[in-house]
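Kindly inspect this one:
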Amino acid sequence: MAWIVGVDEAGYGPNLGPFVMTSVACRVDDAHADGCLWQALRPAVRRAADADDGRLAVDDSKAVYNTTRGLAALERGVLAALWRGAASDPLGTFLSHFCAGSVVTELGGEAWYAGTGGLPGHAPAEEIAAAAARFDEACTAAGVGGWKACSVVVCTPRFNALLDAAGTKGAVLAHALAELLRAARWLVPADESLTFHIDKHGGRNTYTAQIQDALAADFVQPLREGMSASVYRVHGLGREMRLTFRPRADSAHFCVALASMVSKYVRERLMEEFNRFWLERTPGLKPTAGYPGDAKRFYDAIRPMAERLGIAEAALWRRK
């Protein structure tokens, strides 16, 4: 048996709101270790471009979600595949399940975060329950299970602190990835192999130092480093561990696609809370997704209230 882990992020480019990176892991038998989970789980899942026949759309989050379609399809996929909590649970319970305690504490320090948003908030609960049953049945038939997800949420104060300390925005990606790599070691049995598929960090081709720093391994062996892929084997941790960084990994690997969806879902649900807080205090203000261009319009509008509340610019506005 082996574990496949996919890693992807959402919210790297905005000036407002949190950055989120997620890992999604599943346990597979040897027959599926290098196989296509879209095919193995075909009775329950489909690609976003396939006809909507009731199966879950699992794909790059950009293919599943946009502002016109809304969050329903994204929410259905994330909750049906990974969440087995009560239908009445609030967003805060969901985040407590998927995020480390330090993340929940950090969110609790944000003036705009309440964690009270409904779960589900966009797709009917009965649809999610039916899709979850279908997904579980397909997983059992295919010998795929043990689904686990872990998200790192970096709010603006820590985002700016990481940027200031390293002088580069890439430090945020490195920080979040290190958290997820360390978490994955303790989420799965110590004697089972881990194969990571990670969406590449921009144009970066070398990751040896990042992996070494994160895992404190005896030796990180680069097997290949280049624009198309960078592949590493980690030695000295008592298990087989391999990591592959690839551009557009979310279109090639099921677990990366699901990680992309979780990251986007968490980011968008948190932005709902962010917008709700500021709209309640700024009459006539339209919500924002936080991306460059529109973010300045929004920040200029909330600045007077932020000053009255004693919220510094560095706690709201990402410098890069």
Remarks:
- The two ends are 42 Å apart (CA to CA).
- The beta strands are 2-10, 19-28, 45-46, 56-57, 144-154, 193-199, 219-225, 230-235, 241-246.
- DSSP finds eleven helices and nine strands in the chain.
- The domain at 2-274 is CATH 3.30.420.10 (Nucleotidyltransferase; domain 5).
